[in-house]
Specification:
heterotrimer; A alpha/beta; B mainly alpha; C mainly alpha; A: alpha/beta; 9 helices; B: mainly alpha; 10 helices; membrane (chain B)
C-alpha cells in the first residue's frame, strides 16, 4: 500500500517553474532515492511532502491525509513524518538531549522523563550516547547529522525524508551517516532520500527517481535504473557522477 | 572664572526641609532607575511582539508591525511624551480621561509607558534583525518536527535570536536609561530634574550637574556590568557564527 | 474629541509655527550637522591616531558625552558656555550668549560624539591595503587620510550620517527645556496660550512624523544606490 502519493505536482517561483507535473509514490517499507543535477527541483519536491513548500497544483497524500487540504493539521502530519536536512539544523541553544526531547514534549506531550529516556536510547543507537550533554556546535558535522536522524526518529515517524543528508559533510564523515541510514532501511523504515550517493542507492534503494528541470524524467526499479536508464539525460548524469 | 564653588552644598537641607540635596539627588537616581527598568521591560515585551510580527508570513501582521515601528520612530520622544501626558486624557472618553489625570504618580507611569513604546519600536528592529540572521532551515526544522509556528518562534528561533542581539539590547537599555531625562518635561523628578531643581534653588550650577554626571556614569557602569553577565550566561558552547548568515 | 478638533487654531498659528519655529529647528539642525561632522571627523582622526594622548582625550570626551542624557548636556553647556566665552575673551563677567548660538554649540559638541563613532567605524572598515597602497605611492599619512581614506569612508558612511541627522532633527526638540522657540516650543506656547494642547501637540507630531518619514525613506533609497555602486 502506498504511504506517500504525489499526483501531478506543479510549483512556480515567479516565472520559474520549479516543479512541473511530478507524480510518484512511496510504498510502506520502500526506500526511494531521488537524484538529479542541482537546481532540478529535488529538494523542493521532498519538502512539499510535509508541507514545508506549498504547491500550486496537484495532490499529495501521506498515509491517507491530503497535505495541501486547508483543513489538514500540518503540525500533526509533520510530527508523523521525520525529516533530515542538508545542514542538520540542530537547535544550537539546546544540548543534544534537549534537542531530542523538545518536540517529543511540546508536540507529542510526552513527559520530560519519557522523552529523555527515548532520546538516550536513540542516541545510543546512532553511537553518540557519550555526547548527550554537549551542544551541537561542539560536535563534528557527521555527529550532528546522526543526532538529527535520532531527533527525527524520536517522534516515531511512519516515514523519513532525507534532503541531501551528506552533501554538507566532509568526505571522511559521509560513511558514518550513510551507515545509520542503511541500518534504518534494513529495519524496514519507509524512506525517501534526495542524494548523490549512488553507492547508497545501489545498496538499499528499491526505486530511483531522476529529476531534471523540475520534471521527473525517470522513475524506475533500482536494477533497471542502473542497468539501462532509458532517458539520455539520466545516462549523462550517471556517467558524470559514477566516473568521479 | 568668578564662580564660587561650594561642594558642601550637598549636605545642606533642600527646599523640602527634611532631605539634604544629596538625598534628593539619590531619590532622583532612584526614579531614573525605576523609570528605565519599567520602560525597558515594556519595550522588550512589546518590541519582541512587533519584531516577530515583522517577520511573520502573514501580510497584514507584517504591515501593522511596520506601521508601529515607523510611527514611534519618526516622532521625537519629547512630542510623544506630550501626547501621552496631555493629549491622551483629552481624546479618551470623559471618565477614563479623568481617571488618568488623577492617577497617582502619573508622571512616572506616563514616562515609563512612553519610553516603553518608543524603545519598543527600536527593539522590534533589533529582534527582527536577530531573527533574519538565522537560517531559513532552522524554522523549517522546527516545523518539520511538528512544532506550530508560534512554538517554533518560542522554542527555536527567539532563544537564538535574543542571544545574537544581546549587545544591541544592552545599548538600547543604556539609551532608554538616558532618555528617562526627557520625563523632566512632564514633571518627572528624575536625576536630571533634581539636579536642575538644585541648581535653580542654590545657583551652584556646576556642583549640581557634576553630581548628576557622576551618578549617570555610575548607573551606566552598573548596567554594563549586569548586561555583561547576561551575555556570559547566554553564550552557547561551540557556537561561532555558524547559524548566522547561512543561506537556505 | 475629534468633532471638537479646532483646525482654525492650527491655521492661525501656521506662520508662527513655521516661520519662527520650524526655521529655528531646521537652521539648528543644519548648523549642528555641519559643525558636528567637522568636529566629529576630527575626534575620529584623533581617536585613531598613533598619538596616545590625543586618542585618550578624544576617546574620553566621546565616551563621557555618550554616557550622558542630552537633556543634562544641554543644561551643562547652557551654563558652561558663558563662562568659557568669558575665559576665551578675557571679559570681566560671564558672556551672555544668544540662545540660538548656545544651542548650536551644544548640539555640535554633543552630536560630534555620535558622528565620531560613525566616521571611526567607516575608516576602520576600509581594507588596510588602502593605507598601504597610498604609502607605497609615496603619500604622507596626512595625504593618505585626506585623499584616499576619508573620501571613501565618508561615502560609505553617508546613509548612517544622514540617519544620524534625522535623529538630530528630532533631538533638537529638546531645546524645549530651555524655553527656546523651536518648532515644538512654538507649538507649546500656542497650546498653552489658547488652551489647545490637543490640536497643537497632535499637529506637531504629524509634522515631525511626515518630515522624518520622508527623510528616512529617501535615505533608504540612497542606501540601495550606494550599495550598488560599491
Amino acid at each position: 500500500m502506498s504511504m506517500i502519493t504525489l499526483r501531478d505536482i506543479s510549483k512556480t517561483y515567479g516565472d520559474f517553474q520549479v516543479l512541473s507535473h511530478c507524480s510518484t509514490w512511496v510504498s510502506k517499507g520502500e526506500v526511494v532515492v531521488v537524484c538529479g543535477p542541482s537546481g532540478s527541483g529535488k529538494s523542493t519536491l521532498i519538502k512539499t511532502i510535509n508541507g514545508l513548500e506549498p504547491i500550486d497544483s496537484g495532490d499529495i497524500i501521506v498515509d491517507g491525509t491530503t497535505v495541501s487540504a486547508p483543513t489538514t493539521n500540518l503540525p500533526l502530519l509533520r510530527s508523523r513524518v521525520g525529516m533530515v536536512f542538508q545542514h542538520f539544523e540542530l537547535f544550537p541553544h539546546l544540548n543534544i538531549r534537549e534537542n531530542l526531547a523538545l518536540a517529543q514534549v511540546k508536540v507529542l506531550k510526552r513527559s520530560k522523563d519519557a522523552a529523555m529516556e527515548k532520546g538516550m536510547a536513540l542516541l545510543d543507537r546512532v553511537g553518540l550516547a557519550a555526547h548527550a550533554e554537549k551542544f551541537p556546535g561542539q560536535l563534528s558535522g557527521g555527529q550532528q547529522q546522526r543526532v538529527a536522524i535520532a531527533r527525527a526518529l524520536a517522534m516515531d515517524p511512519i516515514a523519513m525524508l532525507f534532503d541531501e543528508p551528506t552533501s554538507a559533510l566532509d568526505p571522511e564523515m559521509i560513511n558514518e551517516v550513510l551507515d545509520v541510514m542503511v541500518e534504518l532501511a534494513r529495519d524496514g523504515m519507509t524512506m525517501m532520500v534526495v542524494t548523490h550517493e549512488m553507492g547508497f542507492a545501489r545498496k538499499v534503494a528499491n526505486r530511483v527517481i531522476f529529476m531534471d528541470r523540475g520534471e521527473i524524467v525517470e522513475d524506475a526499479d533500482k536494477d533497471d535504473f542502473f542497468g539501462k536508464p532509458r532517458s539520455e539525460r539520466a545516462q549523462q548524469f550517471l556517467s558524470k557522477i559514477l566516473v568521479h | 572664572m568668578n564662580y564660587h564653588w561650594n561642594w558642601w552644598i550637598f549636605f545642606e537641607p533642600s527646599l523640602d526641609g527634611t532631605n539634604t540635596y544629596l538625598t534628593t539627588l539619590f531619590w532622583g537616581l532612584g526614579w531614573t532607575a525605576a523609570t528605565a527598568v519599567v520602560g525597558f521591560t515594556i519595550a522588550l515585551v512589546l518590541g519582541s511582539v512587533v519584531g516577530v510580527a515583522r517577520t511573520a508570513p502573514i501580510g497584514w501582521v507584517q504591515t501593522s508591525g511596520m506601521v508601529f515601528v515607523e510611527v514611534f520612530r519618526n516622532i521625537p520622544l519629547l512630542v510623544q511624551m506630550f501626547l501621552w501626558y496631555f493629549v491622551l486624557p483629552e481624546v479618551l472618553p470623559r471618565d477614563a480621561g479623568m481617571w488618568l489625570k488623577q492617577f497617582p504618580n502619573a508622571q512616572f507611569y506616563t514616562a515609563a509607558v512612553c519610553l516603553g513604546f518608543y524603545h519598543a519600536a527600536r527593539m522590534a528592529e533589533v529582534v527582527r534583525a536577530g531573527l533574519l540572521s538565522l537560517s531559513r532551515g532552522q524554522k523549517m526544522a522546527g516545523q518539520a518536527l511538528g512544532l506550530t509556528l508560534p512554538q517554533t518562534y518560542r522554542y527555536v528561533l527567539l532563544p537564538v535570536a535574543y542571544r545574537i542581539v544581546v549587545p544591541a539590547i544592552t545599548s538600547e537599555f543604556l539609551s532608554c536609561t538616558k532618555n528617562t531625562s526627557v520625563g523632566i518635561a512632564i514633571g518627572l523628578v528624575e536625576l536630571t530634574g533634581t539636579a536642575r531643581a538644585m541648581q535653580e534653588n542654590t545657583f551652584q550650577v556646576f556642583e549640581a550637574f557634576a553630581a548628576a554626571t557622576v551618578l549617570y556614569l555610575a548607573l551606566n557602569m552598573v548596567i554594563v556590568f549586569a548586561m555583561r553577565s547576561v551575555e556570559k550566561a547566554a553564550v552557547i558552547p561551540g557556537l561561532g557564527n555558524r547559524i548566522a548568515g547561512r543561506g537556505r | 474629541m475629534l468633532s471638537g478638533f479646532d483646525f482654525q487654531t492650527i491655521v492661525h498659528a501656521l506662520p508662527y509655527l513655521f516661520l519662527t519655529g520650524m526655521s529655528f529647528t531646521l537652521t539648528l539642525t543644519l548648523c549642528a550637522t555641519i559643525g558636528g561632522m567637522i568636529f566629529g571627523t576630527l575626534l575620529a582622526v584623533m581617536r585613531l591616531s598613533d598619538n596616545r594622548i590625543l586618542s585618550v582625550i578624544a576617546g574620553g570626551y566621546v565616551n563621557l558625552l555618550r554616557s550622558l542624557p542630552l537633556v543634562l548636556v544641554i543644561f551643562w553647556f547652557y551654563f558652561l558656555v558663558p563662562f568659557l566665552a568669558q575665559w576665551l575673551t578675557g571679559s570681566s563677567s560671564p558672556v551672555r550668549i544668544d540662545p540660538f548660538w548656545s544651542s548650536v554649540i551644544t548640539f555640535t559638541l554633543f552630536e560630534a560624539c555620535y558622528f565620531c563613532e560613525i566616521v571611526r567605524s567607516g575608516i576602520q572598515s576600509l581594507p588596510r591595503g588602502q593605507t598601504l597602497a597610498a604609502s607605497a605611492l609615496g603619500m604622507t599619512d596626512r595625504q593618505a587620510l585626506f585623499y584616499v581614506i576619508l573620501p571613501q569612508a565618508l561615502r560609505n558612511m553617508l546613509p548612517l550620517i544622514l540617519t544620524q541627522t534625522i535623529i538630530l532633527f528630532q533631538d533638537t526638540s529638546l531645546v524645549y527645556v530651555l524655553s527656546i522657540t523651536d518648532f515644538l516650543g512654538a507649538a507649546a506656547k500656542i497650546a498653552q496660550r489658547d488652551g489647545r494642547l490637543l490640536e497643537m501637540y497632535v499637529f506637531a507630531a504629524v509634522v515631525y512624523f511626515i518630515i522624518s518619514l520622508i527623510a528616512s525613506q529617501a535615505v533608504r533609497r540612497l542606501q540601495k544606490r550606494v550599495a550598488i555602486i560599491r
